[in-house]
């Protein structure tokens, strides 16, 4: 999913789950920042303090850069949460283990992750952790059927239209994308440019098609089985389940049942998914922001903003700069407000989330993945 869902739809679901504007803003900003937190490493301050932080995304999502994308500690806990579906506690079969790594919507692993987040609701970074968890939870719908490692299961034989015929336009689009990588040409002059030869991490073989809320499409997977994807329906299901998880966090009960979303609100959200059809996620994001400014789903009008970089970004407010992590030997200026800054609290939550998912949640379901 892209910024239109992770930021604005997350904010909307938080408000509908009963959060006031400010906590909803923190949750939504954190959900989107998962895709923008690309810096990592120690930050050295001029008072001798050190803060070490991790990345939850790569500097540029380029599906041709297989080596850069092959980072289990980024893609598995933050973008392609394994479902845990398979046979046995710790399977001997490599094939069965790979089945367990496939991302599935609202899997038992995803539900365990949400419950673990709710248990941390008293921590100072709890809202930031909730936003991170909502990012990963929502992506289990968008990224279903793919794996957060370089695997044959990510191979796509062909993209189809809804008549079942080869979608010439989409297949050509993917071929042009991968053929444009000149350094890959030099590395392997014998490389085929047909889509069936592409087996990158995650859903790279179909580029951003799973992340566009308006698309309805089909493809043949690595087993040559036809898979039908209805993104608007999947995104609406994700939003509905997020609403439930957000409500449960707010009341502190991972089994609580929230009041159902009004049918009119669901219809409005579904309509926006289907009619905001710009391929650029930032353009769709602007349309959602405008809808919020007018008052959406019975909420009062609000001017919601998001800044990845610049003077109002979480990073610059915390460190005085939006630049990448300072190189070794350079110093950042310490501020007394740094320990309570949103940027630090987000990164505290990021480390907690990764540790819990990789060391507690996944092993509980028979997965040792990073």
Question: Can you offer a commentary on this structure?
Answer:
With 370 residues, the chain is mainly α. It has one domain (3-150, 230-364). The protein has 14 helices and 5 strands. It has helices at residues 3-16, 21-33, 66-69, 72-78, 94-101, 108-119, 126-142, 168-179, 182-187, 231-251, 263-275, 281-294, 314-319, 342-364; strands at 41-44, 50-53, 158-160, 216-220, 226-230. The strands form 2 sheets. The chain has a 3-stranded antiparallel beta sheet with strand order 3-4-5. Strand 1 (41-44) and strand 2 form a beta hairpin. Helix 1 runs antiparallel to helix 2.
Quick overview of this protein structure:
The protein has 370 residues and is mostly helical.
Strand-helix topology:
Layout: H1 3-16, H2 21-33, E1 41-44, E2 50-53, H3 66-69, H4 72-78, H5 94-101, H6 108-119, H7 126-142, E3 158-160, H8 168-179, H9 182-187, E4 216-220, E5 226-230, H10 231-251, H11 263-275, H12 281-294, H13 314-319, H14 342-364
Antiparallel strand pairs: 1-2, 3-4, 4-5
Helix pairs in contact: 1-2, 1-10, 1-12, 2-7, 4-14, 6-7, 6-10, 6-14, 7-10, 7-14, 10-11
Largest sheet: 3 strands, antiparallel
Q: Note the gap between the termini.
A: 23 Å
H and E string: HHEEHHHHHEHHEEHHHHH
Q: What coarse outline follows from CA principal-axis ratios?
A: globular
**What amount of the residues lies in strands?**
5-15%
The beta-strand count equals: 5
The strands making up the biggest β-sheet line up spatially as: 3-4-5
Count of distinct structural domains: 1
Q: How much helix, percentage-wise, in residues?
A: 40-55%
Number of helices: 14
Q: Spans with pLDDT under 50 lasting ≥5 residues?
A: 60-70, 181-199
What's the overall average pLDDT, rounded? 84
Structural class: mainly alpha
Radius of gyration: 21 Å
């Amino acid at each position: 999913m892209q910024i239109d869902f992770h930021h604005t739809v997350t904010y909307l679901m938080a408000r509908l789950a009963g959060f006031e504007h400010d906590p909803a803003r923190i949750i939504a900003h954190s959900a989107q920042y998962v895709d923008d937190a690309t810096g990592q490493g120690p930050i050295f301050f001029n008072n001798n303090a050190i803060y070490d932080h991790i990345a939850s995304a790569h500097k540029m999502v380029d599906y041709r850069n297989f080596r850069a994308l092959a980072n289990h500690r980024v893609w598995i806990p933050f973008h392609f949460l394994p479902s845990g579906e398979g046979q046995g506690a710790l399977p001997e079969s490599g094939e069965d283990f790979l089945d367990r790594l496939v991302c599935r919507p609202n899997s038992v692993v995803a539900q365990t992750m949400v419950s673990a987040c709710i248990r941390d609701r008293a921590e100072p970074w709890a809202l930031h952790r909730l936003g991170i968890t909502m990012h990963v939870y929502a992506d289990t719908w968008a990224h279903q059927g793919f794996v957060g490692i370089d695997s044959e299961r990510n191979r796509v034989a062909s993209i189809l239209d809804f008549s079942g015929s080869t979608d010439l336009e989409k297949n050509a689009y993917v071929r042009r994308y991968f053929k444009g990588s000149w350094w890959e040409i030099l590395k392997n002059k014998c490389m085929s440019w047909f889509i069936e030869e592409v087996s990158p991490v995650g859903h790279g073989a179909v580029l951003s098609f799973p992340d566009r809320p308006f698309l309805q499409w089909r493809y043949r997977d690595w087993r040559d089985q036809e898979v039908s994807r209805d993104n608007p329906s999947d995104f609406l299901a994700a939003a509905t389940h997020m609403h439930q998880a957000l409500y449960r966090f707010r009341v502190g009960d991972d089994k609580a049942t929230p009041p159902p979303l009004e049918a009119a609100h669901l219809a409005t959200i579904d309509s926006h998914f289907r009619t905001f059809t710009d391929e650029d996620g930032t353009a769709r994001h602007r349309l959602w922001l405008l809808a919020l400014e007018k008052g959406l789903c019975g909420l009062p009008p609000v001017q919601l903003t998001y800044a990845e970089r610049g003077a109002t970004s979480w990073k610059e407010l915390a460190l005085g700069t939006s630049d990448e992590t300072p190189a070794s030997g350079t110093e950042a200026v310490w501020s007394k407000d740094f320990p309570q800054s949103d940027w630090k609290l987000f990164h505290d939550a990021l480390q907690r989330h990764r540790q819990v998912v990789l060391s507690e949640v996944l092993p509980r379901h028979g997965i040792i993945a990073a």
